[in-house]
Amino acid sequence: MNVPVAYFSMEIAIDPLLPTYSGGLGVLAGDTIRAAADLSIPMVAVTLLHRKGYVKQSIGAQGEQLESPEDWIPERHLELCAPIVDVPIGERLVRVRAWKRREVGVTGHGVPILFLDTDVAENHEADRRITDSLYGGDLEWRARQELVLGVAGVRILRALGYPSSMIHHMNEGHAAFLLLELIPADWATAGEADVVSVRHRCVFTTHTPVAAGHDVFSLDILERTLSPEYMRKARPLLENGSLNMTKLAMKFSGTVNAVSRKHMDVTKSMFPESEVLAITNGVHAARWVASPFARLFDTYIPGWRARSEQLRQATCIPVEDIQQAHKEARESLLHMLQERYGMPFGGSGIVIGFARRSTEYKRPLLLFRDLNRLKHIAELFGPINILFSGKAHPRDDWGKHLIREIHEVANISGDLLRIAFLPNYEVELAASIVSGVDLWLNTPRAPLEASGTSGMKCALNGIPSLSVADGWWLEGGIQGVTGWVVRSSLNGGGMPAIDQDNADADALYHQLEHHVLPCFYNSPNQWAEVMRNAIALNGSFFNTHRMVEQYRVLAYERYK
């Protein structure tokens, strides 16, 4: 393709030394950029600098989450770009500059990443702090951040010489203000052709299956944030005195996609006026495959780094070699636990991983809903070791409560049920966990999991999932083949939460007692077959090489 793509994301996880992400959305963005570099897609990425990061997590004596900034020095990692642009925010012009990093793929093609920064000497002190922290502050502060991402992002690209005809890909609605820069001043009365030309240059990916997750800004916030010109463009889009950023992005995007087939159905029910495609998420194989498996793939599947679909050939790898590679990855994880955290954890028995953002719908406590039953299952088969990790948003009190509850359960769980919580979940720790555990546990309350990507990372390392039937697992989960599916009669049935939780917990225990643990403890060769299938069937498809190719065909080149 010849037309360049500008990929806008509020967060991007591209380097462990750059804490410019909070979790799944940023990790997906980083994996997308790496895949675009591998596939020689002409892309440039745009994000914010976040000098104070998201939040650095530690755990107090009572299991409470403690938070602190994660300061870093851009000059040590990034190159400062020459152009500075002005963006009207409120009554002032705010100066915005960009820092650059280049991500190079296996083909030698590079994708520049621009980190926008308002910490410019000429700015008012309050404006210098706009880009400091990820997902901090109030709604008005968020609106100012999103205005910088969208409008300053477009202006920086133009100042750097990128053409106005380029594709603008919004990864979530945070960047939708860029449309106020692209649409004509009189768009509400302009000819259809003027609006269509914008739609043909815009792509929107939504990740959020609940209404509360979509940014909505009230009229008073908009009037204090947007310039008179932008307000004239935005006013016809208001509903009940507010601007919904998802609806803004959908209205002016020629391609709108959800991130799994199930999420497409949910999104269509939420926004029936929009045409929505499904492009299921993926992960970057070379980034997440642990060293023992990378060496194994290099031996049996040369070329897998450049074209991840070749992992389908994992069916030719002897199961003994897969068992040995996993043994090395598992030992590496256990050694890291001992060295970093002083935890002599999981020396015997199955090691189950559960690591993701700590929030209510993820239901990390579902496994403990009947603790006595879980202990009885451990008595039947052997020790069950459960490894937790994940941050709660600083304003998510329920997410913090869940972390405390995990620690409380760990104190009373006994010798056969060993529980550990690893603080400050980040990409390096994630890489160790998703390659070293024996089983990945995923228990969202359906249908609230838009996609999920952690289990995909595990699959690349031969780790099967035990997951609720939601998100990507509805496409990748084959009972007893790639893992095990927690499917109760109430999965996503719209029943009261307590009834769904009870039914799902019962189905989860049934899978553990009658399928998962008998296979793990009594049939190691059968377990190894499931591991091999996870690589060949899931790893070969749920990757960003396939995903970015779908974006190229279905979105970037849709109107060429």
Q: How many domains comprise the coordinates?
A: 2
Helix-residue proportion: 40-55%
- Distance between the ends: 9 Å
Query: And the CATH topology of the largest domain?
Result: Rossmann fold
Q: Please report the number of helical segments.
A: 20
Roughly how many Å is the radius of gyration?
Answer: 24 Å
Describe the global form.
globular
- Main beta sheet, described? 9 strands, mixed
Write out the strand line-up for the largest beta sheet, numbering strands in chain order.
5-6-7-2-1-8-9-12-13
**Which structural category fits the helices and strands?**
alpha/beta
> CATH first level of the largest domain: which class?
Alpha Beta
Task: Work out the number of β strands.
Answer: 19
Mean pLDDT, all residues: 94
CATH superfamily of the largest domain: Glycogen Phosphorylase B
* Fraction in beta strands: 15-25%
The stretches of 5 or more residues where confidence is low (pLDDT under 50) are: none
CATH 2nd-level architecture of the largest domain:
3-Layer(aba) Sandwich
